[in-house]
Write a structure and sequence with these properties.
The protein is built from four helices and 56 strands. It starts with a helix and ends with a strand. It folds into four domains: about 140 residues; about 270 residues, Neuraminidase (6 Propeller), CATH 2.120.10.30; about 130 residues, Immunoglobulin-like (Sandwich), CATH 2.60.40.10; about 90 residues, Immunoglobulin-like (Sandwich). The strands form twelve sheets. Strands 1, 2, 3, 4, 28, 29, 30, 31, 35, 36, 37, 38, 39 and 40 form a 14-stranded antiparallel β-sheet that branches. Strands 43, 44, 45, 47, 48 and 49 form a six-stranded antiparallel β-sheet that branches. Strands 5-34-33-32 form a four-stranded antiparallel β-sheet, with no helix packed on it. β18 and β19 form a beta hairpin. With about 750 residues, the protein is mainly beta. It is elongated. Helices cover about 5% and strands about 50% of the residues.
């Protein structure tokens, strides 16, 4: 069962249960047991809701929508009389407890279950699978069987003799119903037929085809489902438009009448059952293919041998069943006598195949889970939903759960027949998912609300349990808390990253929730990068560039760092600065408990309290121009006690702080050369840019005397472009590597 489909279950838990849960949580809080992971060495994981329990494995137990795990039904797989069948698609029970089963495969067959034994009764001459069965009540021990092709109904006697009994104008027969000597047939294309017994039987198949009464015809591709109400009305469901109709058969010369009851969101009404004016309807929304074909591609049938069955034309391929991956979702609805429609249950990764309604008013829904496990759900009159069974086969296709016979179900992918019992199987258990401590963990106390349970645990270091995991071990020091009423025990499984818990249940057992305490080994964090200002290289502490020549560059430098934090501890940061030592190149070190830098001369710049963000604005005016190094100490002190905390120390490579503007010296106009000359000088960083402007125009670059701007002092001589005779105002600008800017102005005269 997938998490998504289990979460989709709609339940209405009684108010007393909700009150009990709130009370239980309050007691846990009083006992110091939070519902989420704790800070410090101790953490907890709690499983209490349906969705949380659904992530585990239920083996022979029953999981309810209230979040309870109880002793469930047991199942035993019967030995099939043949191995060629690919599915058990139809079942019908007789008054003596016998159950007939229709199969699919290369040779559609009828199996008979009697007195605990399953045997092959007959092989049908045509079709690829048996789609529907009903008792031929006029002849005890006889059943009518429909196959997927040619609209044919076969009479299967207690001796296994097969005879063509009737035929309708249809490609497929999907459902059958009987009432007072009349057989009702739902087909594809969407038609509902009525066949009187007097017009059917061996030798009268052609007569039945001509005399069959068409009660309803729509544009639907298929009439997939059919049931008869206690008032004699027929209810038929369609695909691909998912409409449910009510049909009055119109006996004694009266015409049949029909009306649509509801148009569902989906594309098929797969099954419908009725009692006392109340309908239960299984609706699917399939994603691909012809919904009426139930996941199998059909070919023409091979030649048959029963009376009235004509040989197939020459060249007709043999029957084949090519599986088609069917995907869809389903919802189960209740329609009351007043016509109110209420959704009872839903699955999002799977779809319904069959329904059964028991005498107590509980509905049983058989479902497929493509690529997963087939299931049977039970929805009780109080709307409580339970996963009754979960099987290794992906499709549960048919149910026979009547009180007068053994309870059976049939599956596909692969074909199997199971005998069911409402007694909890010996060794039934619920097994949790593998809880992930994120690292090697010491597992502590397991607490649970429940009765009649035996609990074991195991641990390992691989996400999927294998032979390297520890053996299952019972809890030690079992007891019961007086305040909360919880059962408790110490986990003795060895340390490991993952843990599973297994709860063994008997018929009266119940598990309501459980909590596991653990302490992971503290994982070391790492500082991956420390960026100093806008220069990604970190060689110069660069702040924001000046917005104008009159505004200096900001001395505020943003420090940003990246951290790897594998166990997601809450981290704290402290930053220190000092003049770079001779030969310093930065580095990292890891320790435990060191929250102050080693060595002399460190100045704290992060403030009195440790930082929690991974950035800081540092005013570099607090230090003079020069070469410095930063030290960042990252600590997990807020998530671990002093004796277990870890630190990581990151020391930056040396970098330069330069807040002083460069100087422009001896800037002159050399009339003989027609050039502006001068020297730009900076105390800390190289001259990065020289430029000039004439009469307030745009700036043009100036080259250094040696052709390269790369030194603290740069001479320059530049002949301005396009100077005209007269007097002009020139501005020279110098910019150092820290984005500090200086300008000077002079008047030049051109003759």
């Amino acid at each position: 069962m997938t998490t998504n489909e289990r979460q989709s279950v709609i339940s209405r838990a009684p108010e007393q249960r909700r009150t009990l849960r709130r009370f239980s949580l309050a007691l846990l809080a009083l006992a110091g047991l939070p519902a989420v992971a704790l800070g410090g060495p101790g953490r907890m994981v709690r499983v209490t809701t349906y969705a949380e329990f659904a992530e585990g494995l239920d083996q022979g137990v029953l999981l309810t929508s209230q979040g309870d795990v109880r002793g469930g039904w047991s199942s035993s797989r019967l030995t099939l009389p043949q191995a060629t069948d690919d599915s058990m698609r139809a079942m019908v029970a007789g008054p003596d407890g016998s159950v007939w089963i229709g199969t699919g495969g290369e040779t559609p067959s009828i199996l008979l279950y009697q007195k605990g034994q399953l045997r092959k009764l007959a092989t049908l001459p045509t079709g690829t699978w048996v789609t529907a069965l009903c008792l031929l009540d006029s002849q005890p021990g006889h059943v009518l069987a429909a196959t997927a092709q040619d609209g044919r109904l076969f009479d299967v006697g207690p001796d296994g003799k097969v005879q063509l009994w009737a035929q309708v104008e249809a490609e497929h027969v999907w459902a059958l119903s009987r009432d007072a000597g009349v057989t009702y047939v739902a087909t594809g294309p969407g038609r509902l037929w009525a066949i009187d017994d007097k017009d059917a039987g061996p030798g009268r198949a052609e007569q039945s085809k001509s005399k069959a009464r068409k009660l309803l015809e729509t544009a639907a591709k298929h009439f997939l489902s059919l049931t008869r109400g206690e008032d004699g009305a027929l209810y038929v469901g369609t695909s691909d438009d998912a409409v449910l109709y009510r049909v009055e058969p119109g006996r004694d010369g009266k015409p049949a009448t029909a009306r649509a009851i509801h148009d569902f969101n989906g594309n098929e009404v797969r099954a419908v059952v009725a009692r006392g004016g109340v309908l239960y309807v299984a609706v699917n929304d399939m994603q691909r293919g012809d919904t009426g074909l139930r996941g199998v591609k059909l070919t023409m049938p091979a030649a048959g041998s029963a009376p009235g069955v004509k040989p197939a034309p020459v060249g007709t391929p043999l029957p084949t069943t090519t599986p088609i991956e069917k995907k869809g979702k389903g919802a189960l609805f209740r329609i009351d006598e007043a016509g109110r429609v209420e959704q009872l249950h839903a699955i999002t990764d799977g779809f319904y195949n069959a329904l059964h309604l028991d005498a107590a008013g509980s509905v049983y829904a058989a479902a497929s889970a493509p690529g997963g496990r087939g299931r049977v759900f039970r929805i009780q009159p109080d709307r409580t939903v339970a996963t009754l069974l979960e099987l290794k086969e992906s499709d549960v296709l048919s149910l026979s759960l009547g009180a007068g016979s053994d309870r059976l179900l049939g599956t596909g992918n692969s074909a199997a027949v199971y005998k069911l019992s409402d007694e909890t199987a010996q060794g039934a258990y619920y097994q949790s998912k593998a809880f992930d401590g994120q690292s090697l963990s010491q597992w502590g106390t397991l607490r649970f609300l429940g009765d009649g349970l035996r609990v074991e645990t195991r641990t390992g270091n691989l996400a999927k349990a294998d032979g390297t995991w520890s053996a299952w071990q019972s809890l030690a020091s079992p007891g019961k808390q007086a305040v909360t009423g919880e059962q408790t025990g110490k986990i003795v499984s060895p340390p490991g990253r993952y843990l599973q818990a297994r709860f063994y249940l008997s018929g009266t057992s119940v598990l309501r929730d459980f909590t596991v305490s653990y302490q992971p080994v503290n994982q070391r964090h790492r500082v991956l990068e420390l960026q100093i200002g806008e220069d990604a290289s970190g060689r110069v502490a660069r702040g924001v560039k000046p917005t104008s020549l009159l505004v200096p560059r900001s001395a505020l430098v943003k420090l940003k760092w990246k951290v790897e934090n594998p166990d997601e501890d809450e981290l704290s940061y402290r930053l220190y600065v000092r003049p770079a030592a001779a030969g310093s190149s930065g580095g990292v070190s890891a320790g435990s408990g060191k929250l102050v830098p080693e060595g002399d001369g460190w100045l704290k710049i992060s403030g009195p309290e440790a930082l929690t963000k991974t950035e800081l604005e540092w005013n570099t005016d607090t230090v003079g121009d020069g070469t410095y190094e930063l030290q960042l100490i990252a600590s997990d002190e807020k998530s671990n006690p002093p004796e277990q905390l870890l630190t990581y120390v990151y020391t930056s490579p040396p970098f330069v702080v330069d807040n002083r503007r460069p100087e422009l010296r001896d800037v002159k106009w050399n009339a003989e050369r027609g050039a502006i000359t001068g020297v730009a000088v900076d105390a800390a960083t190289p001259i990065a840019e020289l430029a000039y402007s004439i009469d307030g125009g745009e700036f043009y670059p100036v080259a250094a005397k040696d052709g390269l701007l790369d030194d603290l002092s740069e001479e320059f001589a530049v002949k301005p472009l396009r100077l005209t005779a007269g007097t002009h105002t020139a501005v020279v600008r110098a910019l150092d590597a820290a984005d500090n800017a200086s300008t000077t102005q002079l008047v030049i005269t051109v003759k």
